[in-house]
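Q: Structure tokens for this one, please.
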Amino acid sequence: MASKPRVVVLIKGLGIGGAERLISEAVTFWDRDRFDYQVAYLLPWKDQLVAPLTEAGVRVDQIGNGRVGLSTVRKLRSFLSDVKPDLVHAHLPSTGILARLISAAPVIYTEHNVVSSYRQPTRTLNRMTYGRNTRLIAVSDAVAQSVVGYPKPDPIVVPNGVSVSVSQEDRRAAREELGVSDGTLLIIHVGNIRPHKGHSNLIQAVARLKDMIDDFLVVSIGGEKYEGDVARVEQEAAETGVAGVFRVLGRKENALSFVAASDIMANPSDHEGLPLAILEAMSLGKPVVATAVGGVPSVIESGVNGLLVPPGDPQSLAASLNELAGDENLRQRLGSQARTDALAKHGLEAMIRSVEKIYEEVLAAPAR
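A: Here is the predicted structure, written as tokens:
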């Protein structure tokens, strides 16, 4: 082992998603006096977060042609052979599976979502190779519970952490971009367009909300998985009759500015691990209305620091949004407690220190 252990952080892409942003934002807190960090990713078109890593002095390698096939397997094997990492920290199932099968170094794997949310082939391969993990990190108790019965090692729960700051100028600029005054109630949703992220649930809730309140706007921010996803959601909104009060912005690198500019955060997902968007909104003092799925109830106590609703229930989602819309004191109380809880329990630096402690334990253990 070199004087400074080499850690390769491996992920499928470096687009703007929760797990990806955790890596790009973690660089601020990585202890690079103790660890030599490198990052590698597979999908060449998902590279929006490469710049902040390279600007911070971290080596970033894109491997393969973007398809998880034999060519990528060979190139990843060659890459790891050349780099000779002391451990590999893999995120998300596809790269986790590859790392377990290829890496000669110990593999630490972070499970970011409840495993039932994955497609069946991914779920099967993930489970079949799980026993090759040296350590398993789960981002919430719900995620840890979802792998009960999987091959060991048992999961170590390290909740996601955030570190956010948005200026008043950026907040004002976000409102100006939307063309809304401070008197307009702004509800924000942040989530890439995926089947389980609940866009239809939110649109149906907005249709009900139109009959409850007057001056409001719901804005959904998130990147496409497939070309045309934004247009599809916009078409659904138009067909539902909410196009005038519901906008889809697609991917926005300054999404946090819109969260800071909002009055309420909505999270209508069907499945979640522990979403960064919720933690970020909480740390910015925003009241959150979210579906009680995955690790969400571990951070939101309904009526204390946010409101929880059942998944797939637009009526309940609309009712809770309406409750907050009509009660500014409630919004302030829930938002203030949300900020207190997020800062106390979900700091990014504390999360990184917990992960690096696992690195040290693995590196100190006798070779298997």
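A few notes: The CA atoms of residues 115 and 146 lie 6 Å apart. The two ends are 15 Å apart (CA to CA).
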